[in-house]
Amino acid sequence: MSRNGWMVWLTFAIGMLLSVSPLPQFMEILRPLWLALLLAFWALALPHKVGMVTAWCLGLAEDVLYGTLLGQNALILTLITFLVLSLQQRLRMFPMWQQSLVILVIFGLAQLVQLWLSALTGNRQPTLALVLPALVSALLWPWVSFGLRGLRRRFKIN
Amino acid sequence: MGVRLLVLVVLSVALMVVDARFTLLKPVRSQMSLVLMQSYWITDLPQRLWQGVASQFGSRTELVAENEKLKTENLLLQGRMQKLAALTEQNVRLRELLNSSALVNEKVEVAELIGMDPNPFTHRIIINKGERDGVVLGQPVLDARGLMGQVVELMPYTSRVLLLTDTTHSIPVQVNRNGLRAIASGTGNPERLELRHVADTADIKEGDLLVSSGLGQRFPAGYPVATVKEVIHDSGQPFAIVRAVPTAALNRSRYLLLVFSDNRTAEERANDAAQAQEAQDQQGGTVTPVVPATVPKPVVPATPAAATGPATAPATPAATAPVKPVAHPAPVKPAATRPAAPKPPAAAPASTGGRE
User: Is the torsion defined by CA of B23, B28, B29, B30 positive or negative?
Assistant: First the structure.
């Protein structure tokens, strides 16, 4: 039934590379949540295929990459995917700018949970600048969405 | 859907607790990192390729100029080294007069930076040497100019290094000029360290060099850490505010040195030194005495033969076994000609060494 499923995994792999690629110092604080963006898109497009378990596994991988506690990013990504899935029906109807707004809120919440978790583990960041990546991700959402939709149509992924 | 969420959340929380409190998950993590850490290598690839291309097409004159420069630099360093040998010898003799233990030599190994931590609020880097290369947890990392930080996470072929300027990091230091002790904490700014709890009347001023004091048993003593940039005496504050700039190029260095320090106790060290001395006396004792062991000499394991000059003899056996360097007793001179047991407890070598 599922066709070209490997393309989905390829995008996740690229997302993972993007999330560790070196950036200039002033831009590092703005690094978008690539994996969360990709997960949000695929959860909307292929809810039967990409769900919370996928998100959790990717989160574990991210934990190993970032050297955080195993389960920290897994929890965040699971929460994001849960929220996206539960708003799925509405999100699909929304125009792009409204989708971006919802993404902003969801990612912002997730980043706050992230802040809370890292405070628990003793790495409290002194600022709320942690919410900036959510903003950048929300601004990027239309482009990511268009791009991945094109990809999906091209390779007939379902 | 809600049930699945619940299960996954509980699972993540359980994983986090276990990972924070126990070492149970370390093997899992290191197995996963075996695959995943490749992505740092891949994202570093363009940089490498660019460097490769640049060196391919570097013009001849440039290369010649660089070669000249390196030769001059080498000459200067060699010159300084000669002086250092004499000074170290003198130092060792003075220490003998004072009956204090000899300086310990540290071996170093070159590592290369392959990635930065993506989280902008932590200062951590990833290097291309890991557990299989003999790196241990808490191992100090240097660059050419000073201390950089310590290893905080080991993976099979990579490891994560916490830099001095991370907000969670502190290092015991000493003012080089007068030996005043202090603790330098990271501030989250790559160009700044802060000295905590320095009395307002303490003798510390702008331009002072801070070196590691070796207290705390984590960092070897005597490596430069930072230079004091400003000292603010604010009558409203209980302590002076002292800011310092790390001497190491924390956000620029690409090649780092891993220090394999010797973790024997002072007593064991003294024992070994005594035995070595005894053995040497029996042999006639002409083979360049105490000097080589104490001269800090970078031993690159790939080219053990590259180290030349009189200082080589004792350093080479150590270089042939860089995998277990911490447990290796080699650094303290000719005793190493007899490849001793990998880890000498204080008593064991006393029964075998230098008597026959």
Answer: positive
Containing domain of residue A38, as a range? 2-153
Do the Cβ atoms of A22 and B44 come within 8 Å? yes
Q: Are A151 and A44 in contact (CB under 8 A)?
A: no
pTM of this prediction?
0.74
pLDDT band for B289, please (50, 70, 90 cuts): very low
| Alpha carbon of B226: minimum distance to chain A alpha carbons (Å) | 22
Interface contact B131, partner A, CB < 8 A:
no
User: Which of A108-112, B99-103, B208-212 comes out lowest in average pLDDT?
Assistant: B99-103
Over 90: is that where the pLDDT of A47 sits? no
* Range with the poorest average pLDDT among A23-27, A44-48, B346-350: B346-350
CATH number at residue A70: 1.10.1760
Rounded CA separation B229/B213 (Å): 19
Q: Rounded distance, CA B276 to CA B280, Å?
A: 6
Per-residue confidence (pLDDT) for residue B269, from 0 to 100: 64
Helix B2-21, helix A72-86: angle, nearest 10: 170
Q: Does A34 reside within a domain?
A: yes
- Structurally, how many domains does chain A consist of? 1
Question: Rounded distance, CA B161 to CA B148, Å?
Answer: 9
* A68 — pLDDT class (breaks 50, 70, 90): confident
Three-state DSSP class for residue B210: strand
User: Does a structural domain hold residue A21?
Assistant: yes
Does the distance separating the beta carbons of B9 and A28 come in below 8 Å? no
Q: Please indicate, yes or no, if residue A60 is contained in any of the structural domains.
A: yes
Q: Is A64 exposed, middle or buried (0-12, 13-18, 19+ CB in 10 A)?
A: buried
State the average pLDDT over residues B77-92: 85
Domain assignment present for residue A158? The answer is no
Q: Which residue is associated with the tokens 């000097």?
A: B291
Where b means 16+ CB within 10 Å and e means fewer, A104-116 reads bebbbbbbeebbe
Interface test with B, best of A12, A14, A56, A73 (most B CBs within 10 A): A56
